[in-house]
Predict the structure.
Amino acid sequence: MASGIRLEAVSRTFTSRGQATEALRGVSLDCAPGSFTALIGPSGCGKSTILRLCLGLDTADAGTLAVGDFSPTEATRQGLTGVAFQDAALLPWRSVEKNIALPLDVLGLPIADYRARIAELIALVGLTGYEKALPSELSGGMRQRVAIARALVTTPKVLFLDEPFGALDQILRRQMNIELQRIWMETQATTLLVTHGIDEAVFLADRVVVMASRPGRIAKIIEIDLPRPRDPALFNAEHFHALERQVSEALDGH
Amino acid sequence: MTRLRPLLNLAIILIVWEIVGQFQLVASGALPAPSAVLLRLITDWSDYPLHIGATLYGAGVGFVIGNLVAVAAGVLFALYPVSARVARGLNVAIFALPPIAISPILVLTLSDMAPRIVLAALGCYFVTMTATVVGLTQADARAVDVVRAYGGGKWAALRFVQWRNALPTILSGLRIAAPNAVLGSILAEFGGGGRWGLGVYLLGSLGRAEPDRLWGIGLVATAIAALAYFAFAALSHFVTRGTQAVTVPSAVLSSGDKPRPAWQQALIIAASVALPFALWWVLLALLRVPTMIAKTPPGLFDYLFLLPSAPIAQGKLLAALAQTLPMTLVGMVCGLALAFALALSSQIWPAIVRAFMPVALVTQTMPLVALTPLLVLMLGRGPAVILWITISVTFFPAFVTMAQGLLQVPRAALDVPKAYGAGIFKQLRLVSVPASLPYLFAATRLTVPRALLGVMIAEWLATGTGLGNLLNQSRGYLDYGMIWAVAVISVLISVMFYQIVVAVERRTLGRLGMASAE
């Protein structure tokens, strides 16, 4: 059974050098189990803050958050969640295999039971043959794929992706988008994707949540009614462009 | 050819030295020729093993203990930033204390090899502790986030990410700590106690006017320190597969503690100031040293202010300070100015840095202050020797710090004024000088304690003036109160100087929007 994500009236203010910045003010968001939600907005609108709060990396000043039936900290401790960040954040001294196994180490799970799972994931992200390679021997795109595999190793019920393809070029990014859709449809994990790319958001998500900054808040939620599986031809479809335009206008404050 | 260049320079130096020595050109033979030193070394060789063994034992045990404590402390400070703030006073005191000042105290309160072990350990502690904290806190924050995102706590982050990340930094810290341990052991030997050790041998030979023997001992001490350095450099190279520049840490880290209410801040600062005094008191209580010999903080207060003899003690101290402080300041300013000028001129003539840097780097591994007797022999016992010793102990580390800082000025930054037709001096004024400011401050922090150490050793061994002499005399008179007073006051002065430099640095760099160099 999948778990959802729920935010109720969440606020978070950062203070640096006596200057208060409202990263989030009264944000409420409900992601149904198994749904795919994209967060998009200008830098400083608090989209990454939402993700950090959901992962228990930071605590809210007000409001409540839940991942499944648990608080973020409990959910992460139980291994319900998976995460991939913008830069791959691989440990340079661990091989591809061992980097993918890092969450198992942290959660104290026996790696021996996951050998098959790790091999399967390496195949899924197209890195068969690179099991023993060190991150320094991989290209940027390959490292990012290791990070995705790492995010999936615990078979998470909830997947958090913080601009996971932000550092990749457009062509590679499209390929990764298609891969990600396939992975998501197979795993049925509730997914929250933070992104800068309008096309990426529309292509992948069930809903695009457009955010505004100062204070960080939700400006508009746009439902994406495109049928699945979505294929690359969609990037040129008229309806796709119309949806992109809607997101773009919401970003401009219309 | 470029690789052979340093060897060529060395050959030139040796040849010039040989000629100067053969014809007794310096101080009528105080600088013997290398061949004479070598011959003497061979004749004396049967004396060496026991001396070397004793110094190595003190340095080795101190190295192990000091570094174990340092790594443990570094882990604590990195995991709990508030502990770093509470321990700040203690860390500054350990960084700034002139080892020679506390060496008589250690000889009084401890026995056998313990004083050497303690001074060697203190020499290692600061370098390795700082390296540990830097290595742990500069780990990839995203990788730490990944661990925390799976519910991992501080210890999990330490185990899976930070520890491995800190390893190369800690190893390069050990590289600098190794010669420091040798120096610490030798300085403790200067303070007395024991028959064996290179420091004992050096002092014993100083009175007998045998320059070739003194030089031989100096070279052996240097060789041991250099060997220790290169052993750890090789280990570090093996583990990290890369080399790093030698920079000696001189900042007491202010780690990223969260903002706290004013009363908590005040409490932390008070605790930080009180901790070194509390530790002093507790250690004496634990060691059960007789109160006549061991002065506790109140005991010292009595001696300096309440006892009938207090005015005499105060007078002696003030007179000594009036001799020591000006010398320290002048020596330090000269050493820094020379280093700054040379580092800047290397921007105009890069060949200077290329030719001089290897020499300067080698001096980083030399127990320079332990070689003071050699300078005494060459320069006599006048005030000039104080200045020369102080300049030499401040110049080299300052030059290395500043030259390495200037190397980091991006080429493009120099090209912008150049593109508008600026000459070399305008480039220096607009780019190099401001860019080197953080390194100038880092160098100043580094040289404060060394300058005081240099002056005190010169006073102790050569001129018979100032704090160094007062310390030495008081040992003879068994004036325990004065020994403690000099030790505590020289540590306090060093800490005060350090804090002044830090305050000026914060203001200046803060106004320029620059970060402190480390």
